[in-house]
Fold this protein.
Amino acid sequence: MMEQYIEIKSANADSLLFYRMGDFYELFFQDAEIASRTLGITLTRRGKHQGEDIPMCGVPVHAADDYLEKLIAAGHRVAVCEQVEDPAEAKKRGSKSVVRRDVVRLVTPGTITEEKLLAPSEASYLMALGRVKGAADHTYALAWIDISTGAFKVTESAADRLLADILRVDPRELILAEPIYHDPGLRAVFDVLGRIANPQPATLFDSAAATGRIARFFDVATPDSFGQFARAELSAISGIIAYVEKTQISERPPLARPEREETGASLFIDAATRANLELVRTLSGNRDGSLLKAIDRTVTGGGARLLAERLTAPLTDPDAINARLDCVSFLLAETRLSEALRNALKGAPDMPRALSRLALNRGGPRDLGALRAGMDAARQVVDVFSGAMLPDGLKAACEALAGLPKTFSSHLDIALADELPLLRRDGGFVRAGYHAELDEMRALRDQSRRVIAGMERDLVEETGIRSLKIRHNNVLGYYIEVTANHADVMNGTDEAKARFIHRQTMANAMRFTTTELAGLETKIANAADRALQIEFGIFDALLAETVSHADAIRAGAAALADIDVAAALAALAASENYCRPQVDGSLSFRIEGGRHPVVEQALRRQLADPFVANDCDLSPGDDGRNGAIWLLTGPNMGGKSTFLRQNALIAILAQMGSFVPATSAQVGVVDRLFSRVGASDDLARGRSTFMVEMVETAAILNQAGERALVILDEIGRGTATFDGLSIAWAAVEYLHEKNRCRAIFATHFHEMTALADKLARLHNVTMRVKEWEGDVVFLHEVGKGAADRSYGVQVARLAGLPEAVVERARAVLRQLEEGETSGKASRLVDDLPLFSVAAKREAPKPQADAVLTDAVVALQPDEMTPLEALEALYRLKGLVKPR
């Protein structure tokens, strides 16, 4: 057995080997040690190898999914090794023969399909990176699939946007040729991706062999009917198909044909911007607090995944965007229809994932039940839309739902029971009345006593022997028993002897059997096995029928997801008071009463003050050329970062086809979105906070065009004041003169407001505040003008800094503002004033203070007249020396 294990393990050295032994998957040697630590299970020893004890641990087969989830989450890959031979066959080869085992599947982060291992609202993408060397440079392409749903897409990329394109899809696993992985020029990309990058042999990505591999996988003569693909795209497609064949062994997932995404069809959002805006996760990695969490009103798993996909890849075609907005507008206006629609959608299970599990022979009766329920929900949705004047998007979705196979749906209704078991091996999933022999076998299995009693009653009537009984024991099986004095009835004639076969003579009874009883006994004994075999056959037939309708089922499921997203966005618009944006091909960006969708909801939950809405207009001037730049100044905590982000999020929402949190909005399509908000370092790559800031700023200045929207906050703050001011100053000029894009630039360098007199498209705006009795009140309002103060000391006081620090800061600030330290900074640090103040407070008081104290203690206010009190006050004043 260990020889067999070592042989199989050597062929799968990069995976943990789940080696099937009876009801357990066992792991040995280093695999056992790794699994024991990761899973928190007991590590034992069994047998010896080369004189050393063999480490071993194991997990029950029935709970394997739970353990697989932990191993995959920890970044491991698992080879599942099963028995592939009947033990009886192994015995025929000899008493020492081992049942043949082999790997039936490689489980990796990008190829899991188990329901327990997948979040319903999250896609599970496997991505492949292809590369072909061109005349001047490398050409890159990305192909990605969700093996759990069958989605398959491909696009070209370039070295300068490769990381952003990968992170947009957010794959669980990225496969690539080993030479690419070790390319020094891409080291920074793979450092960011970490362990999701999985190098593979270069032969998997051979573009010369790609056409044949793709054609064989999809069983077509040539893949040309799928569209025209570049060589790099063919390399990526071939690589991902080869990896699927490698991991799924003999099974073939029902993948859709590869769909090409045109470069520029979606809004480009670089990696830093995607993180800063917290689209699907916060900076800490949580979904709570993200934009996706705030806008998600979907009721199906497919709808939730589609919403996330649209959010991470907003469109750039105004016509396509407005087609989506038309669907939301229709459902927002048709309140009752929309409510009925969402109720129908709630009953729609995850058909694509059920289909994938079935096609990979990992599904069970409940997956067939999911298809049945999904097609039933589709019929209800079509009924809800019946007679309505639908926009094109919803009309196309209804046509796809109508294309679901009605015969197959009816077949499932007839064949499947109402209550379905989880596993096929449990049986009981075929409806009574569907298969005559199955019903008979079930009756024998479940009602054997009643069947035997009926035969006994018939024999009593036939023979007239009232004491006749049909009994059972482990030696004879079923037999007929009569008393000895009735023996002549049972064997008194030739006809009786021929029918009643003598089995046993007892002292007071005789036992017989009949051909009919023996046959019934055999049927009863085999009824359970036969019933299960019949059900297996029915399941296999339904499985084959399911796979034959895979394309139609997948298209119907996609239509349900489209409808769910439109209905969810309509519900969001109604509940949050969002407006329909005007999206066009202009360079306009005009928001009235804009709000931050996440912050607004958080304030409502906290029962705090309502969100303060603000306008933003970055539209071109009278010449209609090039958008404006807003230079935003104002205090810390005044709301600058919120204002910056909310306008970026409004652009994303508008272009994904959603209503937006504003009173009105006009968005000229943005092709690239850049956001540099917040501070972070990258110490693992040797980058300080300021270096990260400069790298991200450089990317923006090098890539932003006139259709870009740029959001910049506090450029230059990570270095000396004059250095930072110089960099920020030059960056604004470059954005204005070279990039000529729409932008909001927030800064604390108030000197930069003078640029508005020089740059025609630069406008000064500020976050308004009011001072009240020494404190500052943040109004969170954006207005024209420039701030002359940042109110940092007041914010420090609100944060709880010691009062001595706050007072000293105020004093230093006054001197700095009055210019007293010009060229004489040492005057501020003479005798360490912060600590000298504290020392003076703690020094012994002079003698005059003791006299004054004694005089105050001697006073008896309760016994003094008003005149005596006044005289005492003058005496006390005389004890104090004037300063």
Remarks:
- The longest helix spans residues 515-548.
- Residues 169 and 641 are 27 Å apart (CA to CA).
- Confidence is low (pLDDT under 50) at residues 820-826, 828-843.
- Residues 801-842 form one domain.
